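Expect chain and fold; see below:
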Amino acid sequence: MENFKAYNPTTLHFGKGVIDNLAATVKPLGRKVLLVYGKGSVKRSGLYDKVMEQLIKAGAEVFEFGGIKPNPTVTDVDKAAALGREKGVDSIVAVGGGSVIDSAKIISITIPVAHSAWKFYEYKARPVKALPLIAVLTLAATGTEMNPFAVLQNEETGHKDGYGSDLCFPRHSFLDPEVTYTVPRDYTAYGIADLIAHCLENYFGAGECTLSDRFINAIIADAMEWGPKLMNNLNGYDERAAIMYDATMALNLMTGYGKARGDWGVHALGHVLSLLYDVPHGASLSIMFPAWMKHHSEKAASRILKLGKDLFGVTGIDETISRFEQFFTLIGSPVRLSQVGIGDDKFEEIVRAMIHSKAEGNHFKLGEEDYRALLSLAK
């Protein structure tokens, strides 16, 4: 087992009606609030009105920045930070899924400085402080509500990268499963695929920790139990609550304790597909993870075999991988590039982008020939 530091300062508010505690949480943080959200679903669902009611109750002066894209950009983050700087905001309230909350994390560390947020991603600057961030989650998927990581894409450089800092932890996160009732069927499935992929990235990382592996197995098993139930009952509270809890636990750092670091190669591959073709993040992962396991069936044989035995009670590598493909198919998440409209004619463009993005992985290193093999396995 590797040495590790366990630190997580996020206060999680989970359950029905927790949004009613937002005013009391916001009020001590200052009067001026930057409200960040996406492209309008929060208004259509009525959540925007509930949040505004709480902010008014807190006596806040609210400055809004809407329109965060599903694959969030540094351009929007810089614009939102400039607004927050101009207005002298005291805190940020982010209402949305991973893209909105990820953006808000980087906005929180960019408002106190005069440069672009991308300097953090290039490691040309380090954050020195952050505005308090409160997250109101609308999608169970990324786990961003209880971790310090954020993914952004830079349209000018053609990169989509992750960044992490302890300053980026949300101060508070509000998770009401009822809020996710309006999430469409396809994005519900992509969220389930995403949380399972988060578990697998840490499982295939460097280092051995049996307890963390058991956490991982438990989360995947729970998602595989509740996922199909949720797809058959999209307004089921217990179903939504189980998947929401799974997604948070999958990436709140717990599954990486005792390991050197996760692999994250599949996420790097998926980011390229999202950057090039706007493939939903979870969909890119359900396509690439089975292909990745097939490609590493020799190098990662012992880990794949253990995973199959512990999760499914099977003894073969092929059967283990097939079980994941069957599950993703069952919930409606794609397992082939052709299912998202990507054919062989795009492969060279994808390979060039993967080389440019250095989609390498931390433990099982990837290079140009690996990219070609993976695309062939995923087509």
In short: The beta strands are 11-14, 32-37, 61-65, 91-96, 133-137, 149-154, 159-164, 172-175.
